């Protein structure tokens, strides 16, 4: 975006019954916070920079015909874009047609079939000249302390709300989530105490699927499993695996890792270079999941990719009946698979000694 000049900036949302429904008040507050009120002429429905002539106008997008009559829009900011209808989106895109013009969507994702989310976030291929950026409350340097405190409260007391409102994750049918109410995050150190057994797992990447490595330890007294390290990468060649393992283990090269047994050639390659990798026994997925659900899984805040998987790892839904099945979707599961492999040995022991659930 250019930093100087005369521009027409459309600030829109799906429904704007009056100027009170718009972002005008927000922009006014920012102008006042920066001490720039004298630089702007503010009318009932416009904000105009007195030096450049740049004009902010505010409209509802549901009646797209009124937008088409506005000439020369340089920038269009759509707030609450998760509510934008397909009809409004289809009308808006060709309307913002001035050379070098831009449309900026800001929104908290809601459902995966919301038009803006489906077109730019869920899509495998982005439209030309598109940029998608995840920005959360912790990225905001101006976040008021009261909102930070509220986020932390929700994190401790209503994690589903925290995931959606503060982390910007989709609203999901909670019962579909494999680890629903069985995990949480923490910003505190969860490194294992000295002498504690650490379990390491590795799921190999295929095609577009990433390589995933994970480390955890278990506190049986508290019934908590702590994930404190994780590494991932796409398109990792065989000779690059040792480097990825070192990222996980640091100097602990001899630490035991349980890996997907589908790639014995990679296991052999790494072991010949001094690593200690064993192929998993491939317990039934449901058995591994049942074992993990016996604990509260605690994940360090820094492990964003692991957190994202735990949110999205889901059971399939029968499209005919809309009922949730007991079949787990084969996606968003790379760290989850690595975690099952990591604790496979202790899973088997607890089954064999009847120390189960």
Describe what is shown at a glance.
By secondary structure, the protein is α/β, with parallel strands linked by helices.
How does the SSE layout of this entry go?
Layout: E1 8-13, H1 24-33, E2 40-42, E3 46-49, E4 55-60, H2 64-68, E5 75-78, H3 86-95, E6 102-105, H4 115-122, H5 145-157, H6 159-166, E7 183-186, E8 199-203, E9 211-219, E10 224-233, H7 241-249, E11 256-259, H8 264-271, E12 276-279, H9 285-292, E13 296-300, H10 304-312, E14 315-317, E15 324-328, H11 334-342, H12 344-352
Parallel strand pairs: 1-4, 1-5, 5-6, 7-13, 8-11, 10-13, 11-12
Antiparallel strand pairs: 2-3, 3-4, 8-9, 9-10, 14-15
Helix pairs in contact: 5-6
What do these coordinates show?
The protein is an alpha/beta fold. The chain folds into 2 domains: 8-133, Rossmann fold; 173-352, 2-Layer Sandwich (Nucleotidyltransferase, domain 5). It is built from 12 helices and 15 strands. It has helices at 24-33, 64-68, 86-95, 115-122, 145-157, 159-166, 241-249, 264-271, 285-292, 304-312, 334-342, 344-352, and strands spanning 8-13, 40-42, 46-49, 55-60, 75-78, 102-105, 183-186, 199-203, 211-219, 224-233, 256-259, 276-279, 296-300, 315-317, 324-328. A 7-stranded mixed beta sheet has the order 7-13-10-9-8-11-12. The protein has a 6-stranded mixed beta sheet with strand order 2-3-4-1-5-6. Strand 14 (315-317) and strand 15 (324-328) form a beta hairpin. Helix 5 (145-157) crosses helix 6. The longest helix is centred in the middle third of the chain and has 13 residues, at 145-157. It is elongated and about 75 Å long. The mean pLDDT is 89.
């Amino acid at each position: 975006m250019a930093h100087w000049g005369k521009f027409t900036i459309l600030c829109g949302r799906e429904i704007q019954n009056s100027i009170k429904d718009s972002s005008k008040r927000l922009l006014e507050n920012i102008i006042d916070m920066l001490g720039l009120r004298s630089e702007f002429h503010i009318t009932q429905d416009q904000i105009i920079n007195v030096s450049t002539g740049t004009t902010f106008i505010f409209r509802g997008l549901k009646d797209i015909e009124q937008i088409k009559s506005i000439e020369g829009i340089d920038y269009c900011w759509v707030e609450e874009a998760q509510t934008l209808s397909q009809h409004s989106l289809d009308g808006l895109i060709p309307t913002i047609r001035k050379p070098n013009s831009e449309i900026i969507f800001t929104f908290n994702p809601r459902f995966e079939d919301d038009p803006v989310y489906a077109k730019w976030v869920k899509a495998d291929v982005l439209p030309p000249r598109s940029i998608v950026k995840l920005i959360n409350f912790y990225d905001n340097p101006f976040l008021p302390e009261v909102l930070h405190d509220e986020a932390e409260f929700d994190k401790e007391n209503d994690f589903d709300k925290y995931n959606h409102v503060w982390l910007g994750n989709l609203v999901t049918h909670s019962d579909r989530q494999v680890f629903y109410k069985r995990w949480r995050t923490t910003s505190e150190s969860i490194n294992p105490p000295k002498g504690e057994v650490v379990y390491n797992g590795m799921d190999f990447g295929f095609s577009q699927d990433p390589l995933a490595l994970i480390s955890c330890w278990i506190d049986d007294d508290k019934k908590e499993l702590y994930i404190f390290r994780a590494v991932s990468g796409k398109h990792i060649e065989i000779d690059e695996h040792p480097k990825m393992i070192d990222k996980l283990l640091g100097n602990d090269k001899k630490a035991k890792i349980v890996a997907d047994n589908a790639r014995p050639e990679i296991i052999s390659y790494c072991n010949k270079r001094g690593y200690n990798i064993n192929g998993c026994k491939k317990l039934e997925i449901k058995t591994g999941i049942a074992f993990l659900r016996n604990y509260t899984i605690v994940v360090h805040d820094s492990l964003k990719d692991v957190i994202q998987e735990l949110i999205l790892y889901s059971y399939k839904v029968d499209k005919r009946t809309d009922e949730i099945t007991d079949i787990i979707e084969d996606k968003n599961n790379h760290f989850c698979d690595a975690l099952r492999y990591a604790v496979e040995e202790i899973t088997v022991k607890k089954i064999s000694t009847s120390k189960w659930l």
